[in-house]
Fold this protein.
Amino acid sequence: MANAESKSSLIMLGQSASQASSHSLEDATPSCWSCGTMRAVHFCSSCGKVQPPVPVDYFTFFGFPRKLNLDTAALEKEFYALSRKLHPDVFGQAEEQERSWSLEQSSMLNDAYRTLKDPIKRTEYLLRLEGIELEEQSKQATEKARSTGELKKQVVPPDLLEEVFELNMHLEELRAQKKVGEDDPALLEEIGRAKLPLEEKHDALLNELKSEWNEWDELVDASAEAGANGERRKILDKMVDVLNRRNYIRNLVRDVNEAMEN
Amino acid sequence: MSYSDKVIDHYNNPRNVGSMDKKDSDVGTGLVGAPECGDVMKLQIKVNPQTNVIEDAKFKTFGCGSAIASSSLATEWVKGKTIDEALAIKNTEIVKELALPPVKIHCSVLAEDAIRAAIGDWKKKQESAKPLEVQAAQ
């Protein structure tokens, strides 16, 4: 399953990234294996030799600050430039070790690019870098509810869950009807009526997310330590909240569109 | 990732799918969700107010096979149990029974949440019903 795969690789990178997070790039990057001078992430800035990958986060890998408003055109340009330089063909005549480093760097380059170019993946990645583990939080809340007897607070509002549940019931009914070749125009119309408001809701959530991005980036701009006293966490938690609601709405938009097309 | 035989069995033959009247004072309804994957799960219980035994349970889940299997198993397990016994069910027991892989543990967490939410809803109804009984007795 592609989803599970990408999750585990991100967790792996998240771990190595958090190890590197307290270090600057200079700390994480040893000197060039070939000429001994200070190297850059991918190639030595002095002798130009490819370097073994270092455990830096994807933002650092591309030389970007850990900000969420990202110049995707610059990202793409950098990605293609590095892709060309790291391409296995370039290392056809190189030593075995350099070939394998270039392969490792290429694969990290691809992961980093795919993660950063997508606004949602980028946000989720930053949350992981900042140590926010959604599943772990949920599990702990359940364990707490078990030991205290108090009710676990659902992370999304109850009326959203109701809405999701109801619409799913309609969609299931529609699918069942189609299977036996029936068609209920009233049901189709009802589902169709949900389409536009859902898409609007989805857009509104993306806008909400972007305003959290701006708040985050302002903190990063202010200084590395800015917002250490809970302000950072508050913004990150708000992003989690938006992403949680968006997951449901995104699924509904997808399922409604699917139902309308068929 | 492949599903275990038990997950596949619950997925193909889910037990206790359906719904009960959520306005019934003996019925408790839990509606919970796992935002990571967008799954929603509704679990309902019908409790005998004299014995506190869960006499019936129904569920409806929109989600992956593991989420459906977890909630199907949860309804099987709570049936015949008292409220307190049902509250003791742990998600890890569901993980073990269904042999869920680590990436699907959140499905079992969701099922435990659903049981607790349904019982919580039922308890709330009992409490708000009490004053009426007292009034009726007077």
About this structure: The radius of gyration of chain B is 16 Å.
